[in-house]
Amino acid sequence: STEQTPTPRPNIGAIPPYVAGKPPTVRPGMVSYKLSSNENPYPPLPGVVEAVQQAVGSMNRYPDMGSASLYQALSDRLGVPVDDLSLATGSVGLIYQLVQAFCEPGDEVVYAWRSFEAYPIAVTAAAATSVKVPVLPDGRHDLDAMAAAVTDRTRIVLVCTPNNPTGPAVTRAELDAFLAKVPPRVLVVVDEAYLEFVRMADPVDGLATYRRHRNVVLTRTFSKAYGLAGFRVGYAVAPEPIAGALRAVSLPFGVSTVAQVAAIASLEREAELLERVEALVAERTRVVDGLRAAGWDVPEAQGNFVWFDLGERTLDFAAAADELGIVVRPFAGEGVRVSIGEDEANDRLLKLAQEFPR
Ligand code: PMP
């Protein structure tokens, strides 16, 4: 009988699904581009591929559990102590670990909405409570409202900058003003997944902020600017008590040998990778300028993606994109997020934007 079937904790049934970006549609005679997961269109550099190939031969062994070389490389690169770092299986792994390590069931996690869709999943999975604060009409975080949403039960505030999927980033002045209002017992997580794409006046200086505040955590990733999404490597920078808690709850061997090797080889080739980021930023400028010239009111795009506030027309836009051979990311009833991709893919987006009614 059903009484004898094992049942997961009640909140597990309440976990919202993570809808991953669809792969490109296969159509005879037509190249299709995936612009639905904010990936980097450039493959790993040849030197990175070579290093990984060399490491594959030892994949019968567990990885270095402590990932000592990668911790050291990051510590050197960032100028922070190894103890203030925590590696994870993608930066999404850090979000889960933060909630797990800091929230009792029913504790509150405040974040902007819409934002990264893994936030409600991680919060619900830990039986914590999401407090979603709507983004402003221009897609920016409403940091005043987020500070006002902090209660005695709030343990974490997630600040996503640039915000996925709407695009704008928080300024340094805005973050400083926010931190001055939030009690120091609340953990403020600055999700910097798209950090390297930011080009704006007075951007958040994550490292300087972490150095000044005992309650600030930065989460970063090799998935976006470094183009290693498939390897799953992210890291947090935080004062030792926080970073240590993250390491304590981390999945043993969660960063594979090939992932460690790919991340180290990419750090060694950072200048070349950042040139690619520059090219993507130039493409983003071309796309956003083209969209605005065509009459679209798109929000400021500081990540490697643009947001279309389409409401009820969201799925029509996604279908029209599919016809043109670009796969975008629709959020039904809300809008569409489109990653900056190959030049040809971006051309197709501009063509779609010309043809689709504003
Ligand atoms: N944070 C944000 C804001 C993201 O958009 C993403 C990826 N979509 C992540 C974190 C997680 O990236 P990863 O797990 O690949 O590091």
Automatic annotation (TrEMBL):
Transmembrane segments: none annotated. InterPro entries: Aminotrans_II_pyridoxalP_BS, Aminotransferase_I/II_large, ArAT, HisP_aminotrans, HistidinolP_aminotransfase, PyrdxlP-dep_Trfase, PyrdxlP-dep_Trfase_major, PyrdxlP-dep_Trfase_small. One of its GO terms (biological process) is L-histidine biosynthetic process. Its EC number is 2.6.1.57. Residues 34-350 form the Aminotransferase class I/classII large domain. It is an enzyme of class 2 (transferase). It catalyses: an aromatic L-alpha-amino acid + 2-oxoglutarate = an aromatic oxo-acid + L-glutamate. Keywords: Aminotransferase, Pyridoxal phosphate, Transferase. The modification N6-(pyridoxal phosphate)lysine is found at residue 224. Signal peptide: none annotated. It comes from the Bacteria. One of its GO terms (molecular function) is aromatic-amino-acid transaminase activity. It holds the Pfam family Aminotran_1_2. Its cofactor is pyridoxal 5'-phosphate. Homodimer. PANTHER family: HISTIDINOL-PHOSPHATE AMINOTRANSFERASE (PTHR43643:SF3), HISTIDINOL-PHOSPHATE AMINOTRANSFERASE 2 (PTHR43643). Aminotransferase that catalyzes the conversion of aromatic amino acids and 2-oxoglutarate into corresponding aromatic oxo acids and L-glutamate. Belongs to the class-II pyridoxal-phosphate-dependent aminotransferase family. This is Aromatic amino acid aminotransferase. The gene is pat.
